[in-house]
């Protein structure tokens, strides 16, 4: 049976057997493997091997996540990668707490995530810093963001009333037109390596690192949505997924620009910004107008994705998240109110 079929049947036992037989583990006993089920979108496992803890994710064939994770781990922005092959991604296991559950206030959470994204955007996504022991990248390379294709695909996946389909399709067209105008007006916008899902839960504070050093180490995880796009897209997605309203676009963009401009590419050591060392060789200024345009796109993508998940598993959590995303759009696009009324 193909791994994809086993995943669809939620056959964790079969995946654990396949995981134990990977060459990097040399017949690992199943007793050393445990499944992680905390709302993860793909089958994930924690395992112990030679006294160390590892995180294993079955990403499926064709996923861009292994390539993205290797790029980020090469600059210590993501957990170190042990193995990439046969649709598996094996990394170190970070024993820590996610940014959303930390004791940081909202402003500090935002600063930490913006600093991580600034480092992410400085990565040379065409580089290959991988050792032979990691194996070949089995998935696709990073692709440029095609928001229209993403939204069209999601619209086809979800079940919508005629009114909802009409409203959301028209909104998608309007958002794409507004984005095209903004991109044309800012011709110097540079495409960079974007994480694509700046949820505060995707930043992990490494407790072990904090014990050993005076400053904490924070890493990004979950690169399923990584893509090549202007930094403004990542900032907009960060706002949308953390339910930060569009009115904050100017403040978020200003803070991001301050973090980028504070970096010193002339020195190898980097600069400490809000308890985080950042090394980047690029200085650019993002437009809050472009972030605002991408914000609508991000909210629509997220709302449709959450709605598709709700329709698959009937979890009210996903329904509420879909409503939150569409509600972020409702102040500016009044037609969304009819969509929300049907969802509630």
From TrEMBL:
Gene Ontology MF terms: ethanolamine kinase activity
InterPro entries, per database record: Aminoglycoside_PTrfase, Kinase-like_dom_sf
Domain Aminoglycoside phosphotransferase: 87-245
Gene3D superfamilies xrefs: 3.90.1200.10
One term under GO cellular component: cytoplasm
SUPFAM superfamilies the record matches: Protein kinase-like (PK-like) (SSF56112)
Record's keyword terms, sorted: Transferase
Protein name: Phosphotransferase enzyme family protein
Lineage per the UniProt record: Bacteria, Pseudomonadati, Pseudomonadota, Gammaproteobacteria, Alteromonadales
């Amino acid at each position: 049976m193909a791994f994809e079929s086993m995943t669809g049947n939620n056959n964790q036992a079969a995946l654990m057997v396949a995981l134990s037989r990977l060459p990097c583990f040399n017949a690992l006993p199943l007793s050393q493997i445990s499944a992680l089920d905390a709302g993860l979108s793909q089958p994930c496992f924690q395992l112990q091997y030679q006294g160390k803890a590892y995180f294993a994710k079955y990403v499926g064939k064709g996923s861009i996540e292994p390539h993205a994770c290797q790029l980020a781990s090469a600059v210590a922005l993501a957990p170190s990668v042990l193995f990439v092959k046969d649709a598996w991604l094996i990394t170190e296991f970070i024993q820590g707490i996610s940014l959303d559950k930390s004791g940081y206030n909202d402003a500090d959470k935002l600063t930490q995530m913006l600093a991580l994204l600034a480092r992410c955007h400085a990565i040379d996504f065409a580089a290959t810093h991988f050792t032979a022991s990691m194996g070949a990248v089995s998935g696709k390379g990073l692709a440029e963001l095609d928001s229209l294709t993403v939204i069209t695909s999601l619209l086809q996946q979800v079940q919508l009333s005629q009114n909802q389909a009409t409203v959301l399709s028209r909104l998608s067209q309007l958002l794409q037109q507004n984005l095209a105008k903004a991109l044309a007006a800012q011709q110097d916008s540079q495409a960079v390596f974007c994480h694509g899902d700046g949820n505060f839960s995707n930043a992990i504070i490494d407790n072990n690192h904090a014990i050993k050093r005076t400053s904490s180490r924070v890493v990004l995880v979950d690169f399923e949505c990584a893509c090549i796009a202007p930094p403004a897209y990542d900032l907009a997605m960060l706002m949308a997924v953390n339910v930060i309203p569009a009115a904050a676009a100017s403040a978020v963009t200003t803070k991001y620009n301050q973090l980028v401009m504070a970096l010193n590419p002339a020195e190898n050591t980097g600069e400490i910004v809000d308890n985080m060392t950042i090394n980047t060789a690029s200085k650019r200024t993002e437009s809050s107008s472009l972030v605002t345009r991408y914000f609508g796109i991000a909210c629509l993508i997220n709302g449709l994705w959450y709605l598709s998940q709700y329709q698959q598993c009937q979890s009210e959590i996903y329904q509420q998240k879909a409503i939150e995303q569409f509600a972020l759009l409702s102040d500016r696009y009044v037609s969304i109110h009819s969509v929300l009324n049907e969802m509630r």
